Amino acid sequence: MVFGNALIGLREGLEAALVVSILVAFLVKADRRGSLPWVWLGVLVAVALSAAFGWLITFTQHQMTFEQKEVFGGSMSLIAVAFVTGMIFWMRRAARTISTELRGKLGTALEVGPWAVAVMAFLAVGREGLETATLFYSAAQGSASGTSRPLIGFLVGIAVAVVLAFALYKGALRINLGRFFTITGALLIFVAAGVLAYGLHDLQEGGVLPGLHTLAFDLSGPMPEDSWYGALLKGVFNYSAQTTVLQAIAWIVYIAVVLPLFLRKRKAPVKKQEQPAVAATAQR
């Protein structure tokens, strides 16, 4: 699951890093460098909370029976799918206006006081951190136990995101963020579909959902998961050689519904035309 986790780290990490770079740039340009430590305080607290949340859900899972682990993991996967679906649509909508909105909120926070700046930075980064912890946990469940590949992929994605955000902040790199989030969002839809299918399989193994032994297909022979191409498909799309009917239906329905909605072009808002002055005069 290296690719999937790297994509999650890149996408979520870039969002959080962009938020921080926008806040820092605003304070620097406004000659309010004295408020920078409060921004970093909010960021550090948000990162610590996200790490603690990730540890909590991992520790909680280790204290459960097999059935409880499957139900817990499946539930977390469904929550992660909800997070990533909302995230990609939100970023698609907000990519062009996020800078203006954040600067406006930070300006208001500066008027309130330094703690308000710290709280704003905490909320802006904390939401991304909690989503990232949930997504990473759910995506990592589909990998082989004991392997460090999910963590490596995730850290690589985070590192690339930080470098990109720093380059954007310094003006050394200019990319179309709307296009970037569209491409990564489309790829994440396939990752989310795999997480959804895997989560449903967990719930089937936990006895919550039926159909565990009703397979849509069994490709263990021609396309085993331990082959290089099976491992590649598993890493990118969370491929399972033995896929139940419920998993297959959920994967297809999710892609068929979410992908077209995400890729459809948004209609530009229709501006109201001003009434001609002649018509206004005639009505007097």
UniProtKB/TrEMBL annotation:
Q: Where are the transmembrane segments?
A: 6-26, 38-59, 71-91, 112-130, 150-168, 180-200, 245-263
Against InterPro entries, the record matches this protein to: FTR1/Fip1/EfeU
**Topological relation to the membrane, as annotated:** Multi-pass membrane protein
MF terms (GO), sorted A to Z: ferrous iron transmembrane transporter activity
Task: Tell me where in or outside the cell this protein is found.
Answer: Membrane
**Which family does the entry's similarity section mention?**
Belongs to the oxidase-dependent Fe transporter (OFeT) (TC 9.A.10.1) family.
Protein name per Swiss-Prot or TrEMBL: High-affinity iron transporter
* Lineage, top ranks: Bacteria, Bacillati, Actinomycetota, Actinomycetes, Pseudonocardiales
